[in-house]
Write a structure and sequence with these properties.
3-stranded antiparallel β-sheet; 4 helices; 12% strand
Length: 121
């Protein structure tokens, strides 16, 4: 598919963002205290505790993005499990891995505030 000039600029900027991210990986990022809805905190901890022993096969770009986001979610679950403090309907935790969650929110379908999909067994 041909790219117009704007798409070429976007692709270049996206590549530069990746380079910036690679540089930031080596930097100690500050922790941010956040309040996470309890249902999401519990889901993140469950994701951390889940055994994912299935070997990886070939995957599309979109599947790789989903796998990376799922891994980020489970690592947030680890931080919640180790340092989370319940506070009513929320869990308070210091996180340094919020960028993946914020970025993933851009791809969510429009929902009313507070709607949470839970995985089905």
């Amino acid at each position: 598919m041909d790219e117009n000039e704007s798409q070429k600029v976007y692709r270049h900027d996206a590549e530069l963002l990746g380079e910036l991210g690679a540089a930031l990986v080596r930097v100690a990022l500050p922790r941010v205290e956040v309040r996470v809805p309890k249902v999401l905190a519990e889901a993140a901890v469950a994701a951390w505790e889940r055994d994912d022993d299935e070997p990886l096969g070939p995957e599309t770009f979109e599947q790789r993005v989903q796998r990376h986001r799922a891994a980020a979610f489970s690592l947030i679950g680890l931080e919640i499990a180790e340092r989370g403090r319940p506070d009513g309907d929320e869990v308070v935790v210091d996180l340094n891995a919020i960028a993946d969650a914020v970025n993933a929110s851009d791809d969510l379908p429009a929902k009313s505030s507070g709607d949470v999909d839970r995985p089905r067994d």
